[in-house]
Amino acid sequence: MRVRMSLARQLFVLQLAVIVFLVGTGALLAFLDARRASEVGAGRRVMTLAAGLARVPAVREAMTEPDPSAVLQPLAESVRTATDTDFVVFMAPDRTRYSHPVPERIGQRFIGTVAPSLAGGTVTETYEGTLGPSVRAVVPITEDGEVIGLLSIGILQREIGKELLQRVPVLLAVSSGALGLAALGSLFISRRLSRQTLGLGPAEITRIYEQHDAVLHAVAEGLLIVDLDGKLALANDEARRLLDLPTDAEGKTVAELALDEPLGSMLTEQAQVSDELIVYRDRVLVVNEERAEKDGRRLGTVTTLRDHTELEELSGELDSARGFAEALRAQAHESANRLHTVVTLIELGQPERAVELATVELASAQQLADQVVGAVAEPTLAAVLLGKSAQAHEKGVELAITDDTDVGDVAIDSRDLVTLVGNLIDNAIDAALAAPPPRRVTVTARSVDGGLWLTVTDTGTGVDAARVEEMFTRGFSTKPEGAPHGRGLGLALVKQIITRYGGSVDVTSDNGTTFDVELPPRDGGAR
């Protein structure tokens, strides 16, 4: 069964193997270097001894004696013992030994290189003689410039090795200490890495990353992660699309990204937000923000974004349709009452009064329909105006279409037209209802080359000039709580549509509020 090793443990094993290799190699190189240094030192030592001993007058005198060995052998042994060398050999120019640590070998030929010394030079070499491999020096013994003999002093390599072995415990101690310290450091790094990687192995980390990356690309919601420093740590594809983030957004602070309000403040303050509806540029977003924590330690915030734009537009259309239905039910109920009244008047023998009542109601309804149909050729806008007129009438508000209203074909999507006009009139009706009578909403609409100029005025109490911008950017609302699909989005959606079509809106407040909306014509011409 294969044992799973975490990334930290694998790294520790690899580091330990590398450390052992490096320390072992270093120790071996240090040993070899010490051995070479010992050999070089031994060569210098024997050369210095040989050069000095060859200049002693007694040595030169003994070389001319009939039996040089009688003088040189005792001298050689005393020097060898005093200098802790392994051999001191005096010899004739023809290699005949006059001294040797083994007396039986006196008179035999010296084994080694002597040619440079016979020429007046010196020799330092490692050579295997009768006693074994040794580091030796060979120097000439001269008299009046003539080589009368040779002197060789050497140290056996095994003796050099013994001296070197005395240094091995120190070398091993230093190497072991270095290995131990390196292993402890590697263990510390391994444990720290284990905490950071949660004890996961490379395969698990790779699998988690692949799954994480796949989820980030596939999830339908926008995802933002902001760290404690206010920097954007992560943004998935959907978040980049919804917020139009640049490719290098990650790593920048929220302030540097210049996000529109109120989203920028939400991310900066890192507060908890639950299902908050906001308008961001041309989109309606549902925002959820939660604090990210691990083992009681704050890591930042995780924010999710859902695109609610189409749903809000459909909700607006549904509200309009519901309003139309309620108006039709009210009209049907009122028509039934009037019809019952007409029938009763006839039964009471007052047909003239019955005809008068029916004629007045029919003329009033027909007049409004004729005015709207005659002035507004755009069927969607005409339907919205008639429906809102019925709604206003039901609520006790008079909706007036000015005589200079003249709308032909407009280059505006029907859904956008319903949202734009419907929300402005609904807002005006609510404002008029909040004020004392008379309650009136006036609408003027004109079109040129597909562009639309719309003015909606109410008889409400007006709006504080300081809050005009807030009405569009933060979902301003004076309505009560409890709207089924969010509050205060009507004017925000209006602003969204105006921005999308490159138009403008002007709000004035004087004994009521007036919204002047201008959507440019197709060719960008002036009004």
From TrEMBL:
Protein name (database record): histidine kinase
Keyword Nucleotide-binding attributed: yes
SUPFAM superfamilies tied to this protein: ATPase domain of HSP90 chaperone/DNA topoisomerase II/histidine kinase (SSF55874), PYP-like sensor domain (PAS domain) (SSF55785), Sensory domain-like (SSF103190)
Reaction equations catalysed: ATP + protein L-histidine = ADP + protein N-phospho-L-histidine
Enzyme class: transferase
Organism, as annotated: Haloechinothrix salitolerans
Histidine kinase domain segment(s): 309-523
Annotated EC: 2.7.13.3
Main location class: membrane
Membrane topology (UniProt): Multi-pass membrane protein
Keyword presence, Cell membrane: yes
Pfam families, alphabetized: HATPase_c, sCache_3_2
Location relative to the cell: Cell membrane
Source species taxonomy: Bacteria, Bacillati, Actinomycetota, Actinomycetes, Pseudonocardiales
Alphabetized GO MF terms: ATP binding
Keyword terms, alphabetized: ATP-binding, Cell membrane, Kinase, Membrane, Nucleotide-binding, Phosphoprotein, Transferase, Transmembrane, Transmembrane helix, Two-component regulatory system
Superkingdom to which the source organism belongs: Bacteria
Regions crossing the membrane: 168-189
